[in-house]
Structures are given as structure tokens and as C-alpha cells.
Amino acid sequence: MTRLASALDPNGAEYAANREAMLAKLAELDTEHAKALAGGGEKYVARHRARGKLLARERVELLLDSDTPFLELSPLAAWGSDYPVGASVVTGIGVVEGVECLISANDPTVRGGASNPWTLKKCLRAHEIARANRLPVISLVESGGADLPSQKEIFIPGGAMFRDLTRLSAASIPTIAVVFGNSTAGGAYIPGMSDHVIMVKERSKVFLGGPPLVKMATGEESDDESLGGAEMHARASGLADHLALDERDAIRQARRVVARLNWRKAHPDPGPAEPPAHDPEELLGIVPGDLKVPFDPREVIARIVDASDFDEFKPLYGPSLATGWATLHGYPIGVLANAQGVLFSAESQKAAQFIQLANQRDIPLLFLHNTTGYMVGREYEQGGIIKHGAMMINAVSNSRVPHLSVLIGASYGAGHYGMCGRAYDPRFLFAWPSAKSAVMGPGQLAGVLSIVARQSAAAKGQPYDEDADAALRAMVEQQIESESLPLFLSGRLYDDGVIDPRDTRTVLGLCLSALHTAPVEGARGGFGVFRM
What we know:
The chain is built from 19 helices and 17 strands. It has 532 residues and is an alpha/beta fold. The chain has three domains: 25-259, 2-enoyl-CoA Hydratase, Chain A, domain 1 (Alpha-Beta Complex), CATH 3.90.226.10; 280-439 and 484-515, 2-enoyl-CoA Hydratase, Chain A, domain 1, CATH 3.90.226.10; 442-483, no CATH class. Strands 1, 2, 3, 4, 5, 6, 7 and 8 form an eight-stranded mixed beta sheet that branches. Strand 2 and strand 3 (99-106) form a beta hairpin. Helix 12 packs parallel to helix 14 and helix 16 packs antiparallel against helix 17. The longest helix is centred in the first third of the chain and has 25 residues, at 13-37. It is globular and about 80 Å long.
């Protein structure tokens, strides 16, 4: 066994400072997560309960098998926007009757569960995860449809919601809709395009147009029940496959539907695995509060992989990128982890070869980000950093094994691309509270703008205003700093969630289990032209 040793000193001042900085960030994160858990607030939660209804997360909890985890996705969606944190919908992966499923649940305490632009983005991301990993989809529906004031942003792209459901079904991925309340207008197509539909007696209301709209459009007088009630759909229209007596009965019936799917994973679970030899609690003290200070990513690897066992690939070549083989919860993985921040030509070529090897062996890849990007400067440009960086990005782009990405430190510039950032379709991407991501560091970006402005003034023969320059630099640094932080990026769904470092192994294990529902197959050639 090639067990990683650790040089971390949990009793040292550096560790204590790093841990304190991380705990402060986690406290801030907990505050923002609490906003999502609060839904529409006490008033609307109380009103919902007074109607005898369960909250969105309560419905999810009852749906799941007892004592099984729920990996919530994008809980901070819409953070920093004009819409409530969480985007009025809960999405995640959980186990139902032994089957890993993608679950979405409208939160009716937030504007009646109406969908805003961030709801749409969050749901489309959930569908993307379901499709890539072949996870059955269970929609817990209670929504008044589109949030009408934002219709210009949601109506046209919103059609993708229904397209996705039909494509999932066409790919033989089961889709199940459980309707607890309103599912009106476009929302009626969620049950309409699902394989299995369960409705609750005297609660579910599914129609393209409610009584007021029908009156305006046709002059017809109608009521909710005859127009779109659960019993009507069970007896007359046939839209409801199952009629439930109440919410708990609907959830029970949904579990029975899943039990009868005859669903099988492409790869069996590997069984119990040996935990890391080093304490995951110590992950709190590894990443410095100042990301300019380097740290060894092997300290992270040693606390997330099975038995801390890691076979490093090319350890003496391209040392600022650690690559190697391990298992995590019994699943084989290849790991690429930035060691000293900057990616040089050697690191880029090493990564491209390693990615090709993983594809030959059908082994998923885990990218641990802490990079300031590819190296710049005359020496490195002449040495071919562009073509070597392009080689790494080419390999990442055309790799076919599943990718997992975790931003643990910096993730700047094209290094973000080479390490499989969001645009490169990782199956899952999470961030630690310590992470930052932008086109470059705030100081660098402000400095570049200052240099350009200074050169422009000199070319025109004009004096340069140093006070204005200082003010500009401060403003730009503050803007880029705020836009590079995890809460901002997670709010825009550039990751699937900001996680506690101590949960990294568990989160990655859940992801690996989910992605092995689908076949894991690498590319055999087909990497395009590598410029040598």
C-alpha cells in the first residue's frame, strides 16, 4: 500500500489560523443555508401548515428510505438576486426503495411555488444530472406555474423543462410526478409528460387554464374540481394513474411505483471501504485564509481517499500538479490536484497523458482546484505554454469518463477550464467556502486595467491622475473579489453546492455511487489534434 504520509501539524499556529478562517466562512455559509431552509418565511410556512400540508423538505424526507442521505443540489441558487435563496425549489439525489433518484420539490411557501428564472436554471441543471447519470426523476409538484412578472425571462427557455422530461422518458429513464396542489398552465405539462402520475384527492389541481382564464377565453363557467381535480383526472381524462387519499398516501404510492420499476445500476456497489488513515476533521486547517500561500493538496487527498492510499503518477515531472490513482468508497478514481497554483507546460502534458490513461481504463476523474492559471511570460510563451495548455484542455474536453470537480482554493483563468470547470460538463462540481474563481485574481485584474489606462494616457500625451487610478483599482478589486466568492458563484449555479470540507468524502461517495448507475466508459481515441 502506498499510504500518504502527512506533514500537517494540528497543534501548530498555522493550522489553528487556517481552521479559524475556515470556521468563520462555514458560519457565514450556515446563515445563508438557513435562508433557503426558511422558504417563504414564518408567515407563509404557517399558512401552508394550516392547510394541512407538508413542507417541501418534509415531503422529500418521507419519500426517502429511512436513514439514507439526501445530497441536496444548488441550495444557494438565486443568492444575491431579487429572488429568495433556494429559487423556490428543492433538488437533490436520494434513495427511494433502494434506487438512487433525482428528486425535485416545489416550495409552495415561496410565491405559491411559482417558477422564476433561477427555478428554471436549477431544474434544468437537475435534469442534466439525471440524464447524464441515468437517475429516475421524481417531481413533487405544487406550483402556480411561471412567476408572471418574470415571464420574459422564463417563458421561452422554460420549454426545455418539458423537453427534458420527454427525452428522459425516450432514454428509458423513468419520470414520476406526484401532484400535491396546483400544477397549472405550463406546469400542467410536468404530469402530462411524466411516465407515472399520482394525484391527491381534493388537493391536486391540474389544468392548462383555471376557471378565470376559461371564462375569459370561452365564456364557460367551471369550477376547479370538474376542470382539473384529481378525481376527474383519475376517472375522466386518465391523466392521473393513481389517486391518493392524502399527501402521505401519495408518497407511499410513489415509493411503490419506484419499487416496481425493475431498475438496475450499470455497475454494482463495491461494498464497504477502509476510511482514510488521517482524520477528515483536519481538512478545516489545510487551506490558508490567504490563497496566495501555497499548500500541499496531498494533505487533502490523504483525508478523502480510502485508506489514504494514493499511487502517484509522474511525481517528479510537472510537480505543481499531483496526479495519481486511488479509490473512494470503493470506487476507482484518478485524481488531478493543483500543488503550487501555476500550471506549466510539463504539468499540462502530464495531465493530458493521465486523462488519456483514465479513459483507457474507464476510471472517473476527480479534479481538486487550486490554480492561478497557466504560466505567462516570454520564456513560457516561447516554450509553448499555449499549445501545451490547449493539449490539457483538449484532453479534458474530449474525455468520456465521468468528471468530478471540487474547488478548494483558487480557480482562475484558463486553469479553471483545464481543471474541468463548469463549462466542461463535470458530472458534479462543488466548492469549499475557501474557494475563489474568476478570470484572474482581483489585484492582477485591477493592475492590468491600471497599466492599460496609464499607457493610453501616455500615448495621448496626457497627465495621469494617480488618485483616480487608486480609486479605480480599489473599486475593481472589491468588485472582482465579491464576484469570485463561493456564495456569489453558487447563487448563479456555477457549482452544485458549497460544502463543508469535512463532508467532501461523503459528498464525493454519493456522487460516485450515482454516476455508476450509468455505464462508465472512456474515450477510445477521438481526442482531436494535440499540437506537439
